């Protein structure tokens, strides 16, 4: 999980390459609007939103919102936010998935992910 918030009032996007999805493929990417317990996955707690790699489920505040294709070793996965309309979205291998959520943007929003990955912020 990141230790610095994303810049408020701007669009942002980050992506990563999955270098090892592990035995179970339990990998998630998402954002937190504040406190994120270390034992919780993005989307499985209040003020958390995430995309689960093993199932393709898109979670928001403890509920499944959409289903996308699962992602595994070698995939490039991204997460972005459009400030103008407060829309959170995910990408997989360069393809934008159906937009996930409309959020109330919090200046404390931080990217979060679990397992093995290499990331870059754009």
TrEMBL record:
Residues annotated as domain B30.2/SPRY: 1-122
Xref: CDD domains: SPRY_RanBP_like
Gene3D superfamilies assigned to the protein according to its UniProt record, in alphabetical order: 2.60.120.920
Pfam family membership, one: SPRY
Origin: domain of life: Eukaryota
Name of the featured protein: B30.2/SPRY domain-containing protein
Protein species of origin: Talaromyces stipitatus (strain ATCC 10500 / CBS 375.48 / QM 6759 / NRRL 1006)
């Amino acid at each position: 999980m990141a230790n610095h918030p994303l810049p408020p009032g701007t669009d942002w996007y980050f992506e990563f390459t999955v270098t090892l999805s592990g035995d179970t493929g339990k990998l998630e990417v998402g954002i937190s609007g504040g406190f994120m317990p270390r034992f919780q996955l993005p989307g499985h707690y209040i003020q958390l939103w995430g995309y689960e790699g093993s199932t393709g489920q898109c979670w928001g505040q403890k509920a499944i919102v959409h289903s996308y294709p699962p992602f595994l070793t070698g995939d490039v996965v991204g997460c972005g936010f459009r400030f103008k309309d407060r829309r959170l979205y995910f990408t997989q291998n360069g393809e934008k998935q159906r937009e996930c959520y409309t959020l109330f943007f919090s200046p404390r929003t931080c990217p979060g992910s679990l397992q093995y990955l290499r990331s870059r912020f754009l």
